[in-house]
C-alpha cells in the first residue's frame, strides 16, 4: 500500500472480485479499503490461497489495467528499500511516475504478434519475457568503430564491446581520456548491447549531458529507438516515455536519476556517467544513489555495468579492488598524447619567479597563459567554484564575516552597486554596520563567477567575456577568441577544444569540511581540463594551487585511478565509507535517542556523535563493517517502524551512506 508508515511496509492480502479477475494483474494500480480509508496500492502477486487466517476484504477498485510495475522493478525496489533502511512504497514513488490517464488512452498497448508469443512447451517463467524483444527489430545497428579515436584507445575497450554484443555481462570502470567524446562511447556500448538482443539503461547527471547523449544515441541507433526519462519533461511526456519503455517499444532508456528504475525488456547493460556528481543522489526518502541502484540492477538481473567518468570515485575503485569490475583505462602513452600541459602556480619554481602567486587570485602564470591562448585565437575557459557576484563579504576594517542581523545568515553583494542581501532569508541590509567594530565598508571574502568575468574584462580589454552557470548555461562555444567564466558542471564544449583552462580559487574546494573534498575538487578539475586541447596542439591548464597536494598531483599526471586508490586506502584506515557502511540519524535529541534505544544494532556497530545538524537538530552516526550493512539497515527500519506505530511526534531522518557526514 502507498502509505508512508514504516510499520506497514509489508504486503497485505485481498480478494479479487470476479469482475476484475481478468484485468487485475500483477503490476497494476489498485485501491483498497484499509483502516476505514480508501488508499492506493500496487498489486504485486496473484495466488490461489492466502496465509492469512482471518477474513479478507475485496479490492475496491482497479485504477488502471496497465501493468506499469514490472516484476523485476518490484524486486529491485524491495532490494533498494532494504539497502537504504526505507520502505517499498517510498521507492515505488521514485520508480513509477504518476499516472496520466490521457497518455494511457492515446497510446494503447500493442497486441502481441505471432513472433512474440512463445510456443506452448516454453516454461511459464520464460514465457513472461519475449526471447527477442520487439524493440530490437528495425534497421540494423552498425558495428561501432574501434579505432584509435574510439574504444580502441583503451586496450580493454574492444573486448568490452564484443562481450556486450555476444550477450555476456562484463562490468567495467571506465576512465575516459581528456577530449573524449564520451556520449559517442556510451552510445556505441548501447548499440553493441542492442545488437545482442538486449536493452540498456543509461543515467547522466543533468539535462545538458542528457542532450548530448540523446544526440549520440540517435546517430548510433537511428530515430525512435530510445526514449529519455527526466523529471524536467513534465507529467505527460515523462509518462509517455515510461510507457514506451514498459511496453517494450524501445530497447534503450536514458535520463537523469529519474531513469535509474526505468523498465527495460531483457536488460543487458546499465551505465552511469560521472558517478561522483552529487546530482545522482536522490534527495527524497530513502535517498538512494543512482550508481548503487544501477549496480543492484546489474547484480539481480545478470546485466553488464559501465561506470564511467574522467575522475574515479572511491566507490568505483572499490569495485575494481574487490574484483567486481575491471578497469577500462588507456595506456600511459595514449594519455600523454591526449592530455594538455598542466601546471600549478604554488610550487617552488613558480613562486621564485612570481612571489605574489601565493596570494594572487590570478597569478602571472595564469594571466600569461590566457593571454597567449587569446593571441592564438583560441578560447579560454576559467572555472570558479562560486556563482553570483560576491557570494560572501566581510568587514573591510576588522575582516569579520558580514552576517544578517535578522537570521545570522551570510550577506552577499548581487552587483557592484547593489546592497547587501542575506543568502538565507533574502532580507536587504542597506544600513549594515559591523557588530564587532561598527565599520560600514565591505570587502570581498569569496568572489563569484560574475565578478570574475568583470575583472577579466578589465584585464583583457576588447576580448568578449561570457559566463555559464545556473542562470544561463552555455552548451557550445564557437571557434575564435573569447573568455568563458563557468561554475563547475556548467562548462561548455568548445569547437576544437579550449586553448587554455584556468582553475581558480582552489582553496574553496580543498578546504571544505567534507570527507570528499579532495575527490570532488579533482573531479571538477578533470572535467574542465578535459575540455582543453592536447599539449601537442597548444592546450594548457593552470591550477592555482600548491603542486604538492595529492589532488593536484593526480591532475598533473592525469591519474585519477592513483588518487582513488589513495583515497580508498585512507578511508579504510580511518573507517569511512565506502570501506565501511555508515548511517546517519538526524532529528531532535530526544527523537534520535528514542530511535537508537529501539534499534537492535549489530554487535560491531559504533555509534558516533552527536554532530550538530541544521536548526535545533543533531545527527548521530552509526558505523558497521560492510558485511553487517544489511543488519544495520534492518535494525534502523524496524526501529523507525516502532516509532511510527507509536505515532511519535518528532520525525527522524535515516540515511544510509549519506554524501555529507559532517
TrEMBL record:
Residues annotated for Zn(2+) 1 binding in this entry: 395, 398, 434, 437
Primosomal protein N' 3' DNA-binding domain boundaries: 3-97
Residues the entry annotates as binding Zn(2+) 2: 404, 407, 422, 425
Region annotation (Disordered) ranges: 100-150, 336-355
Cofactor: Zn(2+)
Keywords from the named record: ATP-binding, DNA replication, DNA-binding, Helicase, Hydrolase, Metal-binding, Nucleotide-binding, Primosome, Zinc
Pfam families: PriA_3primeBD (PF17764)
Gene Ontology terms, MF aspect: 3'-5' DNA helicase activity; ATP binding; DNA binding; zinc ion binding
Co-factor remark: Binds 2 zinc ions per subunit.
Biased composition regions of type Low complexity, renumbered to the chain: 336-345
Biological role: Initiates the restart of stalled replication forks, which reloads the replicative helicase on sites other than the origin of replication. Recognizes and binds to abandoned replication forks and remodels them to uncover a helicase loading site. Promotes assembly of the primosome at these replication forks.
PANTHER family: PRIMOSOMAL PROTEIN N
Family membership: Belongs to the helicase family. PriA subfamily.
Subunit structure, interactors included: Component of the replication restart primosome.
Protein's UniProt name: Probable replication restart protein PriA
Organism from which the protein derives: Micromonospora echinospora
Amino acid at each position: 500500500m502507498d502509505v508512508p508508515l514504516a510499520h506497514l511496509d509489508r504486503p497485505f492480502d485481498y480478494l479479487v472480485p470476479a469482475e476484475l479477475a481478468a484485468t487485475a494483474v500483477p503490476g497494476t494500480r489498485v485501491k483498497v479499503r484499509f483502516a476505514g480509508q480508501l488508499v492506493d496500492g500496487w498489486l504485486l502477486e496473484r495466488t490461489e490461497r492466502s496465509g492469512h487466517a482471518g477474513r479478507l476484504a475485496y479490492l475496491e477498485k482497479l485504477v488502471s489495467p496497465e501493468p506499469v510495475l514490472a516484476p523485476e522493478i518490484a524486486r529491485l525496489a524491495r532490494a533498494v528499500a532494504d539497502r537504504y533502511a526505507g520502505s517499498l512504497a517510498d521507492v515505488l514513488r521514485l520508480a513509477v511516475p504518476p499516472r496520466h490517464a490521457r497518455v494511457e488512452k492515446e497510446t494503447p498497448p500493442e497486441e502481441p504478434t505471432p513472433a512474440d508469443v512463445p510456443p506452448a512447451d516454453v516454461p511459464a517463467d520464460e514465457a513472461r519475457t519475449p526471447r527477442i524483444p520487439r524493440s530490437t527489430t528495425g534497421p540494423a545497428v552498425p558495428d561501432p568503430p574501434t579505432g584509435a579515436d574510439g574504444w580502441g584507445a583503451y586496450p580493454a575497450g574492444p573486448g568490452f564491446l564484443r562481450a556486450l554484443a555476444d550477450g555476456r555481462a562484463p562490468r567495467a570502470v571506465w576512465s575516459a581520456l581528456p577530449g573524449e567524446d564520451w556520449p559517442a562511447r556510451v552510445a556505441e556500448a548501447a548499440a553493441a548491447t542492442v545488437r545482442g538482443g538486449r536493452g540498456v539503461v543509461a543515467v547522466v547527471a543533468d539535462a545538458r549531458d542528457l542532450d548530448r547523449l540523446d544526440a549520440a544515441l540517435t546517430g548510433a541507433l537511428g530515430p525512435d529507438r530510445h526514449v529519455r526519462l527526466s523529471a524536467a519533461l513534465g507529467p505527460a511526456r515523462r509518462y509517455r516515455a515510461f510507457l514506451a519503455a514498459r511496453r517494450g517499444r524501445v530497447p534503450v532508456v536514458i535520463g537523469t536519476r529519474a531513469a535509474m528504475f526505468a523498465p527495460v525488456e531483457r536488460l543487458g547493460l546499465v551505465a552511469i556517467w560521472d558517478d561522483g556528481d552529487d546530482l545522482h543522489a536522490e534527495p527524497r526518502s530513502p535517498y538512494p544513489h543512482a550508481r548503487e541502484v544501477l549496480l543492484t540492477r546489474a547484480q539481480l538481473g545478470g546485466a553488464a555495468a559501465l561506470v564511467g567518468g574522467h575522475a574515479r570515485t572511491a566507490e568505483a575503485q572499490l569495485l575494481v579492488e574487490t574484483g567486481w569490475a575491471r578497469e577500462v583505462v588507456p595506456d600511459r602513452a595514449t594519455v600523454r598524447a591526449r592530455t594538455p600541459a598542466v601546471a600549478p602556480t604554488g610550487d617552488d619554481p613558480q613562486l621564485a619567479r612570481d612571489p605574489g602567486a601565493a596570494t594572487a587570485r590570478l597569478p602571472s602564470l595564469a594571466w600569461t597563459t590566457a593571454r597567449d591562448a587569446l593571441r592564438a585565437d583560441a578560447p579560454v575557459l576559467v572555472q570558479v567554484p562560486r556563482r553570483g557576484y560576491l557570494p560572501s563579504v566581510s568587514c573591510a576594517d576588522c575582516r569579520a564575516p558580514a552576517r544578517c542581523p535578522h537570521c545570522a545568515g551570510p550577506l552577499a553583494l548581487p552587483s557592484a552597486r547593489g546592497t547587501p542581501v542575506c543568502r538565507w532569508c533574502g532580507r536587504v541590509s542597506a544600513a549594515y554596520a559591523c557588530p564587532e567594530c561598527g565599520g560600514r565598508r565591505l570587502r570581498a571574502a569569496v568572489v563569484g563567477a560574475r565578478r570574475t568575468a568583470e575583472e577579466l574584462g578589465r584585464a583583457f580589454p576588447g576580448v568578449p567575456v561570457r559566463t555559464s552557470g545556473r542562470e544561463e548555461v552555455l552548451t557550445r562555444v564557437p571557434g575564435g577568441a573569447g573568455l568563458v567564466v563557468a561554475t563547475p558542471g556548467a562548462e561548455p564544449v568548445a569547437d576544437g577544444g579550449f586553448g587554455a583552462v584556468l582553475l581558480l580559487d582552489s582553496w574553496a574546494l580543498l578546504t571544505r569540511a567534507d570527507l570528499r573534498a579532495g575527490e570532488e575538487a579533482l573531479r571538477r578539475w578533470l572535467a574542465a581540463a578535459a575540455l582543453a586541447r592536447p599539449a601537442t596542439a597548444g592546450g594548457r591548464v593552470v591550477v592555482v594551487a600548491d603542486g604538492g597536494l595529492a589532488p593536484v598531483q593526480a591532475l598533473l599526471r592525469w591519474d585519477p585511478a592513483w588518487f582513488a586508490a589513495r583515497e580508498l586506502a585512507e578511508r579504510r584506515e580511518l573507517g569511512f565509507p565506502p570501506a565501511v557502511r555508515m548511517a546517519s540519524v538526524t532529528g531532535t535529541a530526544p527523537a534520535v535517542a528514542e530511535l537508537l534505544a529501539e534499534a537492535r544494532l549489530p554487535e560491531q556497530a559504533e555509534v558516533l556523535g552527536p554532530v550538530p545538524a541544521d536548526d535545533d537538530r543533531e545527527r548521530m552516526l552509526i558505523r558497521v563493517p560492510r558485511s553487517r550493512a544489511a543488519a544495520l539497515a534492518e535494525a534502523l527500519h524496524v526501529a523507525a517502524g516502532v516509532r511510527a506505530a507509536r505515532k511519535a511526534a518528532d520525525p527522524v531522518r535515516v540515511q544510509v551512506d549519506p554524501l555529507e557526514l559532517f
